[in-house]
Design brief:
The protein is built from eleven helices and twelve strands. The chain is an alpha/beta fold. α3 packs across α7. The protein is globular and about 70 Å long.
Length: 359
């Protein structure tokens, strides 16, 4: 029995040829491919400045540093996300303030955000979870009223939009990821998108040991560069992103039309969901349901089984009921562009069969 994978990077001869070209050039580190990738990615984020780095986590980390977030500052974050969203806050010495989510969208609840603001709050990290944009209109109103920086964690949301405005173009900074499971990949990598060109230059310094000119170190920095090998892959993937996104949406429409499930992904009017994950809720015996699907050859997973505020690394004693419920009920099914019609039908048939027989 062949397993239908939950995620599958689309790597073809274009990516292989691009990598071979870089290898033959003998210029493997950050160079012309990285610069070209930044310029090309800028076109999907309103021509904002883009800075390529080695991971989405680094993109978030440097965004916070560039915006001046530091010790004793508070940064509002959702707890229903990957740990990196909160890790970077702690890494700059600030305090993550965990808030609850909207149970329909799984994204940050603007009302909860407003209640969490104190005189120490300096920023909010908004996560566009599963590929669905958060409620940026409300979030930006609250942030502007309280003079807060807004960082968009768009790691899962390439080309997601609200009324045709792409994510990554709302806040002061945004971070995208190109990890192999994401909607596009560079093998490993991330992109910082910045509203302010001064902050963009600062991020370029920070990623490269604090220097723009060799041996002229202006500040203390890191080595968080993207290589030309990774950028070459990313450039190929970017060319395919629109078509791949359309396929994800088409696959989601098929699942939503055929699954015997009352808790399908919710998409507000005017929102473009790009389905990094296709996530439903299994209210009773979620883990049993997941195991049965996997035994029948349908890959699936839980994003995320433990809210970040409950992880040993944070262990915050707070009540976030929507987050807790989601962590116990969500289940993500295959949605990637490589799925065949036969595989989609198998997912539907097995899901519905388990639903009927077990529940």
């Amino acid at each position: 029995m062949r397993m239908i994978p939950l995620a599958k990077p689309q790597i073809s001869w274009q990516e292989r040829s691009a990598v071979i070209k870089v290898l033959k050039s003998s210029s493997l580190a950050q160079g012309p491919e990285v610069m070209a990738f930044e310029k090309e990615f800028s076109k999907i984020v309103g021509d904002r400045d883009c800075v390529a780095v080695n991971s989405g986590t680094s993109a978030l980390h440097l965004s916070l540093i560039a915006l001046g977030i530091s010790e004793n500052d508070e940064v509002i974050v959702p707890s229903f996300t990957f740990a990196a969203t909160a890790n970077v806050v702690a890494l700059v010495g600030a305090k993550p303030i965990f808030i609850d989510i909207d149970p329909k969208t799984y994204c940050m609840d603007p009302a909860a955000m407003a209640k969490a603001i104190t005189n120490k709050t300096k920023a909010v990290i908004v996560v566009h979870l599963y590929g669905l944009p958060a409620n940026m209109n409300q979030i930006m109103k609250i942030a502007n009223k309280n003079s807060l920086f807004v960082i968009e964690d768009a790691a899962q949301a390439h080309l997601a939009a609200i009324n045709n405005q792409n994510v990554g173009t709302y806040g002061d900074a945004a971070a995208f990821s190109f990890y192999p499971t994401k909607n596009m990949t560079s093998g490993e990598g991330g992109m910082i998108v910045l509203k302010n060109s001064t902050n963009a230059r600062l991020c370029r310094l920070l990623r490269n040991q604090g220097m723009e000119t060799r041996y002229q170190n202006e500040i203390i920095g890191f080595n968080l560069r993207m290589t030309d090998i990774h950028a070459a892959i990313g450039r190929c993937q970017l060319k395919k992103l629109s078509e791949a996104t359309d396929k994800r949406i088409k696959n989601a429409q098929f699942l939503s039309s055929n699954l015997n499930c009352d808790t399908l992904p919710f998409v507000p009017e005017g929102y473009k969901h790009v389905y990094h994950q296709y996530t439903v809720r299994i209210v009773i015996k979620r883990d049993t349901f997941s195991k049965l699907l996997r035994e029948k050859g349908v890959g699936n997973d839980v994003y995320y089984p433990t809210p970040v505020h409950q992880l040993p690394s944070f262990n915050h004693k707070i009540e976030l009921p929507n987050t807790i419920n989601a962590s116990k009920e969500v289940l993500s099914l295959p949605i990637h562009p490589s799925l065949s019609k036969r595989q989609l039908r198998k997912i539907v048939d097995l899901f519905n069969k388990i639903q009927d027989e077990v529940y």
